[in-house]
Design goal:
- With about 250 residues, this protein is of the alpha+beta class.
- The protein has helices at about 5-10, 20-25, 30-45, 50-65, 70-95, 105-125, 215, 240-249, and strands at about 130-135, 145-150, 150-160, 165, 195-200, 210, 225-230.
- The chain is built from eight helices and seven strands, in the order ααααααββββββαβα.
- The strands form two sheets. A five-stranded mixed β-sheet has the order 1-2-3-5-6. The protein has a two-stranded antiparallel sheet with strand order 4-7.
- The longest helix has 26 residues, at about 70-95.
- The termini are far apart.
- It comes from Malaciobacter marinus.
Length: about 250
């Protein structure tokens, strides 16, 4: 067993010990935390029988159904549901999609992760049956275009991987020698002038929140900075928003 694991065991697996261990070995706390997560998810996944676990889920769902109509509907989809649950459990037991397994430098990886969110959405939109393409111009205020029912929709895409918030405001420009308070460096609010749809993509599992900017435009200046995902749950995987918007455009 490696020294990092040994020292965590000595600290009874307490997460607040990670910083001390990382400092001792001159590595970043975030890097060490990722190592522990990857190792432990791998260890647990290797001893869990996903087929049996999916059966348990199916049994629990079946027990929760009292209505006869729902019971019959459940019987109809039972086999398909078991298969998709097993696939979903596999993703869960690997802590979501693989991330930076080649240890790319953090600055480069941040940019790449942003691109990955864009590609995840475009791929999922195409899979859902929409004509969708990425926009190659980096200075554009939108990242993709959806062509549906002879209408074009501009889509801005943001990736989320941790936390439960999204923001309808760009990040302030930072870095050495940059005046954070200067107007041109302060993050601008994202409005319907920039795009028609704002999509938040969960990079861990691929879930998309498809939010019409007509909703976001109604937020006040403070509220738009931090919006809880629970506030936009109606737009979670709501691909019909695209149909509705093209019908009204």
């Amino acid at each position: 067993m490696c020294k990092y694991i040994d020292e965590l065991i000595e600290n009874n697996y307490k997460k607040n010990a990670i910083k001390t261990i990382a400092t001792k070995h001159n590595i970043s706390e975030a890097e060490l935390k990722r190592y522990y997560q990857t190792k432990f998810f791998y260890d647990i996944a290797n001893v869990v029988n996903l087929n049996e676990l999916s059966k348990i889920n199916i049994e629990e769902i079946e027990k929760s159904l009292d209505d006869e109509i729902l019971k019959n509907e459940f019987k109809f989809i039972k086999t398909d549901l078991k298969k998709i649950i097993e696939k979903s459990l596999y993703i869960a037991m690997t802590n979501g999609f693989s991330t930076n397994i080649n240890h790319i430098e953090s600055g480069v990886m941040t940019a790449n992760a942003g691109d990955s969110a864009e590609f995840i959405f475009v791929a999922r939109a195409i899979l859902a049956g929409f004509n969708c393409s990425s926009v190659d111009v980096r200075s554009s205020r939108y990242d993709a275009i959806i062509d549906f029912n002879d209408k074009l929709l501009r889509v801005q895409i943001k990736g989320i991987s941790s936390g439960n918030n999204i923001s309808f405001k760009d990040r302030d420009r930072g870095g050495q020698g940059i005046d954070h308070k200067h107007k041109r460096n302060v993050g601008q609010r994202i409005t319907s002038k920039d795009c028609d749809i704002y999509v938040a993509v969960d990079k861990q599992v691929g879930i998309c929140y498809i939010i019409p900017m007509s909703w976001a435009d109604k937020l006040d200046e403070d509220k738009c900075k931090t919006v809880k995902l629970s506030d936009v749950v109606n737009y979670k995987e709501n691909w019909n928003i695209i149909k509705e918007m093209t019908a009204n455009k």
